[in-house]
Amino acid sequence: MEKYVSRRFLIILIAPSGGGKSTIAKHILNEMEDVDYSVSYTTRKPRGAEKNGIDYFFVSEEKFKKIKDENGFLESALVHNSYYGTSRTYIEEKMASGKHIVLDIDVQGAKQIMNSGIDCVTIFILPPNILELEKRLRKRSTDSTEAISLRLKNAKKEIAEINNFEYLVINDKLDLAVNAVKDIIKTEEMKISRKKNILNDFMEEKK
């Protein structure tokens, strides 16, 4: 058990489409016991085998707007005619229970969370270069040429905002990128500002 306990925080992984943030998030969740995933709220209907409370919290538009009006979301957005949002209460309760929370999100969502006042760490994930990003998008074989061009255009806009965030991880080799994110989390845990009762705990050691 950790002697000098660190307050938990939100880990925000930011990347353009094709950057690998979701894949890295899955590895972090599998490899770090004290990290949990943020379950978002949405007004869209469940798809396939999706389950309420596990994949998303599926709510009505009326309930979503009520939560938003009460400042209940750290960030929210309208995407393809459905609302999505990250619950402030959900994140705070998870952190209070002793868990870090990892969230993969776009630039605009990350900026909203950073302005919310919650304790968070921002990590920008990038492929080695723009050519590799394009290669990964084409390898998916799920988008048209026009859609890929639009994703690349949007990616360049997002990358242009990289100086607004704290850490950079180059996702060239997945295992190295995952380890880099884990190292950042461990480094942030060691900040004195996040330690609880460090002086009292230290003095108790001397008794």
What does this structure look like?
Helices cover 42% and strands 20% of the residues. The chain is an alpha/beta fold. A 5-stranded parallel sheet has the order 2-7-1-8-9, sandwiched between helices. Strands 4-3-6-5 form a 4-stranded mixed sheet. The longest helix has 16 residues. The two termini are 19 Å apart.
The largest sheet is: 5 strands, parallel
Helix-strand string: EHEEEHEEHEHEHHEHH
Rg measurement, Å: 19 Å
In what range is the share of β-strand residues?
A: 15-25%
Instruction: State the share of residues found in helices, binned by percent.
Output: 40-55%
- From the spread of the alpha carbons, the general shape counts as globular
- Count up the helices: 8
Structural class: alpha/beta
Which residues sit in consecutive blocks of at least 5 with pLDDT less than 50? none
Distance between the termini: 19 Å
Counting copies of identical and different chains, the oligomeric state is: single chain
Q: Calculate the mean pLDDT score and round it.
A: 91
User: What's the count of strands?
Assistant: 9
How do the strands line up in the largest sheet?
Answer: 2-7-1-8-9
